[in-house]
Amino acid sequence: MRNKILELLRANTSTYLSGEEIASQLGVSRTAIWKHMQELKNAGYEIASHARKGYQLIAAPDRLLADTIGNGLNTKLIGSAFVCFDNVKSTNDEAKALARKGAVNGTVVVSEAQSVGKGRMERSFFCPEGGIWFSVILRPDFLPMEAPKCTLLAAVAVTKAMRKQGLEAGIKWPNDIICQGKKLTGILTEMSAEMDKINYVVIGTGINVNIPAASFPEELQDKASSMSALLGHDVPKIAFFQDVLRNMEKLYLEIEANGFKELLQQWRHYSITLGQEINVIGVKETFSGIARDIDDDGALLVETQQGLRKVLAGDVSIRPRNKQVK
Amino acid sequence: MRNKILELLRANTSTYLSGEEIASQLGVSRTAIWKHMQELKNAGYEIASHARKGYQLIAAPDRLLADTIGNGLNTKLIGSAFVCFDNVKSTNDEAKALARKGAVNGTVVVSEAQSVGKGRMERSFFCPEGGIWFSVILRPDFLPMEAPKCTLLAAVAVTKAMRKQGLEAGIKWPNDIICQGKKLTGILTEMSAEMDKINYVVIGTGINVNIPAASFPEELQDKASSMSALLGHDVPKIAFFQDVLRNMEKLYLEIEANGFKELLQQWRHYSITLGQEINVIGVKETFSGIARDIDDDGALLVETQQGLRKVLAGDVSIRPRNKQVK
């Protein structure tokens, strides 16, 4: 009902719409309409109301709601359904539970804040209000061994949208988005699969959008930042998020139609790792070399004195060679 | 309590154990002991009871119970916990739910019958009483892309145990166990993973052990059979199952210590596909060739007139070339 009222209001933003007309179009009482209007105002919608003329939508809140994100999104797949939270433990956990229950391909789970941010290898992640914490459920046709490349897809989609906002963001292999040496985004992709068939992939992405620099925990101060802190002003959250979702859709449809070639090409374009001298710090050994390329599997190819080495996204950390490693 | 009573009885199979002694050792009443004895008898345990002398275990049932499987199993990992059912929809579904709740590495879920057998690519599978339908939860350290080889592990473990029972069983790539041209076992491996870390793998295996040939549905009559039907006598189910679990443990520990080399070698030894002229029937195309080897990924290498082709376990079916393909 709330969404139907919003639809009517959005279709008539230049004029007032009488409570009677809305009530009769939706087949409910005027009192019910009045109650819904109060709820929408409480949710942050700016609605002018006039005793005689009725209601008029002045502005939607810059909040992550199915209505605000969906309005003008114009995607076919990504955002086929929205599940929105003010605060949730983990959008990935919610998305996995929904996927098990049969949630449709392209379902987006998003939250204003997360109480338990989860990064790769069970590392924790700072997820306060002001960011965008979301998970996309995909049910791709390709083999499970192709799934790691979904992480690259999210990285490219977010980096592209950040550049549009004026940030010189780039991708540190495999899945960190960095700007001015600080991390702005973390991506955690999970999947459920049979050996030759993906049940579902959940791409979890956390983006530090409008978060004051000072609110980051001390141990993150020199490692992480937010878009607003680096730009010096807040970013229009909904418009930015819509851009991210549209970019994801475009890349995903391209993969479905023509495979991963274009995605890998775009990833190379946004990479800040390629061409750099790096240290590869693994569980068993550490070595140095020059990051030359990623191969068709998304593995990093590192030129070492012993020849070209292929680095899979295991527990490996990549550091610029001239920096001191703690 | 039941398992503690069984432990005491098993430790004294050559003599009677008085109800009083059992009751005092376990700190419960003699009436309670009597009730448990009735339950054990109902579950199929043969227990001699004598008004003055007490109780003596004559024989355990050949039923899939934690006690019967665990007794003398002597494994460290596989069977670290047992969850046993008379009938269940799908041991894989049960195992996945348990794994999500944190079930330990090596947990075995087993059922006397399954109401919804699930094969690869959502094919259904006939799972009546008399078979062994089980799933093993593993939490391996290796990368998700290595997980498909867990299917090979189960295939080798089962084939080896079948040969010990006198059946000339062999493995048809990737995961069918065949004897006299008929399928005796199906394997479905599923996993939950991050891109670079396996959360858990569930290897589901269904073995047609003691199932009368006549009870197979008509459409399976010329495709599937059971161990008992081919041998002409029933197989001791528990002893056979223990063998399978011990084989799995040995192979798994070998993988953990030295990687997949030995497993692949054993798979080659039991393969009935290698060296054969085959048709590879895929979704997009069909081609013919000679199955030459499996590579380090477990992919089948097929020699064709256009050169060596690598076949992944997608929706591919392999048929002997001289047989008519429907």
Strand order of the largest sheet of chain A: 3-4-7-11-10-9-8
Shape of chain A, please?
elongated
Mean pLDDT of chain A: 88
Low-confidence stretches of chain A: none
Second CATH tier, the architecture of the largest domain in chain A: 2-Layer Sandwich
- SSE order of chain A: HHHEEHEHEEEEHEEEEHHHEEEEE
Instruction: Report, as a whole number of angstroms, the end-to-end distance of chain A.
Output: 56 Å
What portion of residues of chain A belong to β-strands? Answer: 25-35%
The chain pair with the largest interface is: A-B, 25 and 25 residues
3D architecture notes:
2 copies of one chain form a homodimer. In chain A, the strands form 4 sheets. The first copy, chain A, has a 7-stranded mixed β-sheet with strand order 3-4-7-11-10-9-8, with helices on both faces. In chain A, strands 15-14-13-12-16 form a 5-stranded antiparallel β-sheet, with no helix packed on it. In chain A, strands 1-2 form a two-stranded antiparallel sheet. The first copy, chain A, is α+β, with helices and mostly antiparallel strands. In chain A, helix 2 crosses helix 3 (30-42), helix 6 (149-164) packs across helix 8 and helix 6 packs across helix 9. Chain A folds into 3 domains: 2-59, Orthogonal Bundle (Arc Repressor Mutant, subunit A); 66-270, Bira Bifunctional Protein, Domain 2 (BirA Bifunctional Protein, domain 2, 2-Layer Sandwich), CATH 3.30.930; 277-320, SH3 type barrels. Chain A has helices at 2-10, 19-26, 30-42, 66-70, 91-100, 149-164, 227-231, 237-258, 261-270; strands spanning 46-50, 54-59, 82-88, 108-114, 117-118, 124-125, 132-138, 170-172, 176-179, 182-194, 197-207, 277-281, 286-294, 300-304, 307-311, 317-320. Chain A contains 9 helices and 16 strands. The model of chain A has no long low-confidence stretch (mean pLDDT 88). In chain A, 30% of the residues lie in helices and 29% in strands. The radius of gyration of chain A is 22 Å and the shape is elongated. The A-B interface holds A 120-121, 143-145, 147-148, 150-151, 174, 188-197, 199, 312-315 and B 120-121, 143-145, 147-148, 150-151, 174, 188-197, 199, 312-315.
